[in-house]
Amino acid sequence: MVRLTDMMEDDRNHLLSRPCPRFDGDPWVEGPPLAERRIAIVTTAGLQVRSDAAFDFRTAEYRVIPGSIEGKDLVMSHTSVNFDRTGFQSDTNVVFPIDRLRELESDGSIGSLANYHYAFNGAYMEPAGYEDKAREVAALLKGDNVDAVLMVPV
Questions:
Q1: What average pLDDT score do residues 72-92 get?
Q2: Which secondary structure element, helix H or strand E, spans residue 42, and what is its range?
Q3: 45 lies in a domain?
Q4: Structurally, how many domains does the chain consist of?
Q5: Contact yes or no for 28/135 (Cβ under 8 A)
Q6: Is the pLDDT of residue 113 over 60?
Q7: How far apart are CA 118 and CA 66, in angstroms?
Q8: 17-33: per-residue pLDDT in tens?
Q9: pLDDT band at residue 124 using 50, 70 and 90 as cut-offs
Q10: Which of the chain's ends, N or C, has fewer CB atoms near its CB within 10 Å?
Q11: Other CB atoms closer than 10 Å to residue 44's CB: what's the count?
């Protein structure tokens, strides 16, 4: 992860000039214990199944990642020059912790894993640009009976 102090001045100033979005409502809700929850991963690491098309530049599209995926079958098309990919190359779980969640499912710490997980390419869009696709993914998660999402921002 690049520190602001290590970035070029123009890039740093651009990031610091952006307002942090505000959302209406209370994000905290009550629910069942973690051991009863169905969990999905949503990442902004620009991941896709090896056979899927790479992400286009500056789009809010997403990729569906099957719950049965193995880390070796994922590729990253995250194109930010500020992103260090060596962690992902060493261990996919750094940006897509599917193996860790499988372990938690196996020992009963979580209820179950979703049939599908989702990846966005988070490098180039303003947050509002993702709203339509985020609502689409939320409906897909609901259809899969997911009641907890592990967000992995990259």
A1: 76
A2: strand 38-43
A3: yes
A4: 1
A5: no
A6: yes
A7: 9
A8: 888 777 787 777 778 99
A9: low
A10: N
A11: 20
